[in-house]
Amino acid sequence: MSRVLTIDSKSNPRIKEYRKLKDKKHRREQNLFLVEGFRLLEEAFKAGLSVEAVLYDPDKEGDFQRYVQPYLQEEEVIKTSRAVLAELSETVHPQGIIAVVKLPLAKELPHTLTPESAMYLYLDGLQDPGNLGTILRSAHAAGAAGVLFGPGTVDPFGDKVVRSAMGSLFHVPLYLSGLDTLETLVSQGYALAVTSLEAKEDLFQADLTGNLIMVIGNEGSGITPAMAKRGDILLKIPMPGGAESLNAAVAASIILFERVRQLGAKTCTNPPNLL
């Protein structure tokens, strides 16, 4: 049974602590982050995330009963004011509910290769929150095994990423010590795939059906030279229109779904046509 409290003051010690979760450092220290919005919180519950507290505006009681109440067990429920929610929100128009949720981090990798091949994404200094949110949605939709966060990559639990990922953040395994995780996967036999102008074959000619780690680089500078040198598979996305480059999230999505197409062609008599 959930415990119900009322807090109306922005200076309440509990509210002050929750406000600190807007900062990456505090999120990592407390192993908590903020999720705003009724549908997004419903998705967090459906994904099995651990919710510590739910703060909502009583004027939104109808939405609360529809999207949140059915999932409540022992979470603390705090009825509060719009002013308090505005302190915690990073949106122009707060949606009337914010939850304090434990970070959904993957704990460990499989010790050996699984019978079915898997694809991980390694983010090599990706910095734009919107791009990360889009990549997480594509990774979720395409069945990626996980996303590895390399040095300099944007924090996945900031408000802009959480909102732009549209709930996919809750469903894709995330590895914040991405470089260490990458080395473990490479030691298990995973190949590193990188985009390169020196690639001799384009994306649609390469075999993407094995155990792969796809490296996605920084929006401005691309993949770091050290990572580019390690590439086992060099890929290029054909651009007959003559554009110099693609958005990082778009490139990642194209590669992910080319793998989906190839896997379908390998296993189905009527493969999906995604081109």
TrEMBL record:
Keyword Translocase: no
GO biological process: methylation; RNA processing
One GO CC annotation: cytoplasm
Annotated SMART domains: SpoU_sub_bind
Residue stretches making up the RNA 2-O ribose methyltransferase substrate binding domain: 34-107
Presence of the UniProt keyword Nucleotide-binding in the record: no
SUPFAM superfamilies, A to Z: alpha/beta knot (SSF75217), L30e-like (SSF55315)
Swiss-Prot/TrEMBL keywords: Methyltransferase, Transferase
Top-level taxon of the source organism: Bacteria
CDD domains on file: SpoU-like_rRNA-MTase (cd18095)
Cleavable signal peptide: none
GO MF term (any one): RNA binding
Pfam families: MRM3-like_sub_bind (PF22435), SpoU_methylase (PF00588)
Protein name: RNA methyltransferase
Species of provenance: Proteiniclasticum sediminis
